[in-house]
Design a protein that fits this description.
alpha+beta, five-stranded mixed sheet, 12 strands
C-alpha cells in the first residue's frame, strides 16, 4: 500500500459535490438514472465528487487516474466492507468475489491454475458444442418467428458452458432452476439495498420467503454438483476438480466443504451471468448498427468460411472480439464498484476520508470524452486502432475490474463470448422485437430491460457455409 502522508492529505482539497440525499428521500424511492446522474457529477465536480447519502459519506471517482489509485496503487486501503457485498455474501458466502485479505489471496492462488491460458483453450470445444446445440434450437425458433427473451437464451447457454467446463457436470434441466432462482435474487438484492432493507430475509412475508427459497435452490444445486463430482472421483482439468484436490502451499490444508461450496456458488453465478449479459447487449447493438453487423459477417466469412471456430481462431477473429469489447464498453455487465476507505488518502488531489465509501462505475469511465472519441457511439472499429489504444490510460476500460481484484475468469469469458458469437452469427441474425425500447436495467449486473425480446432470423448462406455449420449441429446435437 502507498498511503498518502499527513502532509499530502492536508495539502489536498476537499471533494465537492451536490447537496446531500437524506435517508428519508432514499426510503421514499429516490432513484436517479445512474448514467445521467454520474455523468453530471463528473462534468460539474471533476474526477472526485463528494456528497452524502443518508448517513454515508460517498466519493464518486470518475477518472482512470483515480481508478488506478483505488484499485491498484493503494488497493489494500480500499476494502469490500460495504452493504452491497454483505448482501451478496449472504448468497455466495465468502468466495473470491466477497472475501478479503489473506483468505482471499489463498483462495485466489488455489483457483488461478484452472484459468491458465492453455487450460482455457482446452475448454473451447465445450463452448463451441454448447453454441452448436443452441443453433439447433434456434432453427426451430427461427421457423416460428416469435420473439424470445435473448437474455434468457444467453443465460441458458453460458450456464451450460459453466457446468461442463468449470465443474465437469451436465446441468441439463437444472439450468432453468438456476436462472429462475438468480432472477429472484438479482432483483431482490438491488431492491433491498436501494430500500436499505439490510437485515436478513427472515420475516414470514412472501417477499422474504421468495428470497429464502431462491437462495436454498441455488445452494442445493451447488451441493448436488459437488456431491456428483466427489462420487465420480479422480482428478480432471476442470476448476472444481482442481479446487477439491488443491492444497495450501504453507499449511498443506485443503478447502473445507463450506469453502468449496462458496467458491462453486461464486463461479457458477459470476462464470455465466456477465458473459450472458455481454452477449445479449452484443446481439441488440448489432441489430441497431447494421454497419457493425456487416463487418462481423465479412470477418466470419473470411476467417471461417462456414466452418466452426476453434481456440486457434480466436486471435484471428479480431473484429468479432472488437464487437464484444465495444458492447462491454457501452454496457459493462459489472457496472458499479464499491469500496470502503480504511485510512485517509488522496485521490486526484482530493481528500478521501477514512470510512468513506468510494463508488466507481466502468459505465462512466467507458464514456469519458477524455479517453474515447465519440464516446456514446457504438464503433467496434475503434478497437482496431492500435495507436489510440496505446494513448488510452489502462484504467479507462474496466469491464472485469482491474488491479489485484481483477476478475480471475476474464480470459475464459472473452474466449467464450468470441466463440459463441462466431458460431451463432454465421447462421442467425437476431432482430429486436417490434416496439421494444432498448434500455438498461440496473440490477447487480447491467441487464437489458424486459429480458431483451428478439426474433431469431436466419441469414442467407452459401451452400458451403451452410453445410459446415449444419454438419456441426448434427454432430453435437
Amino acid at each position: 500500500m502507498t498511503h498518502a502522508s499527513r502532509a499530502e492529505f492536508e495539502a489536498a482539497r476537499e471533494a465537492e459535490g451536490p447537496e446531500a440525499v437524506s435517508l428519508w428521500r432514499v426510503l421514499r424511492g429516490y432513484r436517479p438514472d445512474p448514467l445521467q446522474r454520474w455523468t453530471s457529477l463528473r462534468e460539474r465536480h471533476g474526477d472526485v465528487a463528494g456528497y452524502r447519502v443518508g448517513f454515508t459519506d460517498v466519493c464518486f471517482v470518475s477518472s482512470a487516474e483515480g481508478a488506478r489509485r483505488v484499485l491498484q496503487e493503494n488497493a489494500g486501503n480500499y476494502t469490500k466492507d460495504h452493504p452491497a457485498y454483505a448482501m451478496i455474501r449472504r448468497l455466495v458466502g465468502n468466495g473470491l468475489l466477497t472475501s478479503e485479505g489473506s483468505f482471499w489471496l489463498r483462495q485466489r492462488r488455489l483457483a488461478q491454475p484452472a484459468f491458465h491460458r492453455e487450460r482455457i483453450a482446452g475448454m473451447a470445444g465445450q463452448m463451441v458444442a454448447a453454441a452448436v446445440e443452441m443453433a439447433a434450437a434456434w432453427e426451430r425458433l427461427s421457423a416460428r418467428g416469435e420473439p424470445v427473451p435473448m437474455a434468457g437464451e444467453m443465460s441458458r447457454l453460458t450456464l451450460k458452458v459453466a457446468g461442463e467446463a468449470l465443474f465437469g457436470t451436465q446441468l441439463g434441466e437444472t439450468t432453468a432452476r438456476v436462472a429462475a432462482a438468480w432472477d429472484v435474487l438479482n432483483r431482490q438484492l438491488v431492491e433491498r439495498f436501494n430500500r436499505r432493507r439490510l437485515f436478513p430475509p427472515v420475516l414470514p412475508t412472501r417477499y422474504d420467503r421468495d428470497f429464502r427459497k431462491a437462495r436454498r435452490t441455488m445452494l442445493e444445486i451447488v451441493e448436488e454438483i459437488i456431491a456428483q463430482r466427489r462420487a465420480r472421483g479422480g482428478q480432471t482439468a476442470d476448476l472444481l476438480s482442481m479446487l477439491m484436490h488443491a492444497r495450501d502451499e504453507e499449511t498443506g490444508e485443503q478447502m473445507t466443504d463450506a469453502q468449496l461450496r462458496d467458491e462453486v456458488a461464486t463461479m457458477m453465478l459470476a462464470g455465466h451471468e456477465t458473459t450472458a449479459i455481454a452477449l445479449s447487449w452484443t446481439w441488440a447493438l448489432l441489430d441497431r448498427h447494421r454497419h457493425a453487423r456487416a463487418g462481423l459477417d465479412a470477418e466470419l466469412t473470411r476467417v471461417l468460411a462456414g466452418r466452426l471456430p476453434t481456440a486457434e481462431d480466436v486471435s484471428r477473429l479480431r473484429y468479432t472480439r472488437a464487437v464484444i469489447e465495444e458492447s462491454m464498453r457501452l454496457y459493462p455487465p459489472a457496472w458499479i464498484l464499491h469500496r470502503r476507505t480504511v485510512e485517509d488518502d488522496v485521490v486526484c488531489g482530493r481528500r478521501i476520508h477514512r470510512g468513506a465509501v468510494v463508488v466507481m462505475s466502468p459505465m462512466i469511465l467507458h464514456r469519458h470524452p477524455a479517453y474515447w472519441e465519440r464516446p456514446d457511439e457504438f464503433l467496434p472499429a475503434r478497437w482496431e486502432d492500435a495507436e489510440a489504444e496505446k494513448r488510452r490510460p489502462r484504467f479507462a476500460y474496466l469491464p472485469f475490474s482491474a488491479g489485484p481484484r481483477q476478475c480471475i475468469g476474464n480470459g475464459f469469458a472473452m474466449m467464450e463470448a468470441v466463440l459463441v458469437l462466431a458460431v451463432l452469427a454465421q447462421r442467425f441474425d437476431p432482430r429486436l422485437a417490434d416496439g421494444y425500447e432498448l434500455k438498461p436495467q440496473y440490477l447487480v449486473t447491467l441487464r437489458p430491460a424486459l429480458g431483451l425480446p428478439m426474433r431469431i432470423e436466419g441469414v442467407a448462406l452459401s451452400p458451403r457455409r451452410h453445410f459446415g455449420l449444419q454438419e456441426g449441429v448434427n454432430r453435437h446435437s
